[in-house]
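>> received
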Amino acid sequence: MFIVAIDGPAGTGKGTIAKLVAERLGLVNIDTGATYRCITLAMLKENVKIDETEKIKEILEKSKIEFKNENGEQLVFLNNEDVTKQIRSNDVNNMVSLVSSLKFVRYKMVDLQRSLAEGKDVIMEGRDIGTYVFPNADVKIYLDTTAEERARRRQKQNEEQGIKSTYEEVLKNIIARDENDKNKEMGALKIAEDAVVVDGTYDSIEKNTQKVIDIINEKKNTIINKKNASSSENQPKIIEKMKVTKKEPIFKVIQREILRTILWVIYKIVYRVKVIGKENVPKDGSFILCGNHVDFYKVPVIELFTTGRKRVYFMAKIELLKKPILRWFAYLFNVIPVKRGKNDMNAMKQSLQALNQGYILGIFPEGTTNGLSKKVKVKTGTAYMALRTGTKVLPVGMKVTKTNKIIVNIGKPLDYSSKKQKNPEKELLESTTKEIMDTIIMLTDTAK
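>> returned
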């Protein structure tokens, strides 16, 4: 999966450039703006106003949006009707920005856009692709052009398509839309911190397309070089293709149980493990086991001394699996490998699947050993999983004393079922992450 995100204001030529780049580099072109335009068109056809929330939700549920390639041209279909030209009308232009600013509309469309991109090498253009839809995109480009030049281009395009308008009307609409897009409460138009800005005012579409292609190729070469520098290519297929299944190979189960017993005895004797709050562990059902990452070789303690013999799926960075012995451990203990720095949809799907099937998901939010002391930014993955599924979080604080004794302090489960939502907002993710980490820190500090 390779994601190219192109953001920028209306009329910069993003759509045309994305189409040309897709053709030349073999990428799938997903026009995100067209999805919002389809909903806007459906509202106009049914005479639904912007404040009629329930009616808009009904339209969202019954609208089927598809992209089809016919004779080398990408067409947009709404409920099996070709609306490629209709969604570019002035009426839609004047209303689409307001429609796309509605949170529930954005949630629905972002879900659609992400599902369309899943497992593919794609190029997406819009307003917040690199900042919201795919914040971990491999390539982020911000295409900018002056409002006057954009108005001139859009007016010419309207004339070619038989749409009546004047240059002044188009310019006024573009300026108003820019202002609205930049000040949206959600998904506002802005430049991502790691985006490459391309000024397309004075160059042709062809030259701007080539600029974008050069940026993508340079990024691809960098990624390839990094992969070659590491030995990630040598990761075993059995790990990368690990799936959550109810029935495991019997030989795998036997090996795991023998190893668990040996490890339990070793940790109990060598580290004199003490467990506090074992009664807080849920008796049945799935939950997220969340602890502090004190030491890689002490990580098994949390699983061995909290969950009994329940099946746990731990998320771990794929770089840890370079050594054969660690790959074997990962296989036996159902480790879900995560490609850090990317939008790893495969790892996300496996994690959600584990929870949905009633298993335990183990996550270390720090993302690295002693992350808090290193002042790394805590990952929001735990909060996302909890809020997305409504699953309880079991916080665990682990402390290693001066005499090398390990104390495991298990807290009461944190219940976020009342805040369950398919696409948690950034503010909620961050506040939930803080609550979880504050609890873990408290449990660690009070472990005696």
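>> Residues 61 and 108 are 9 Å apart (CA to CA).
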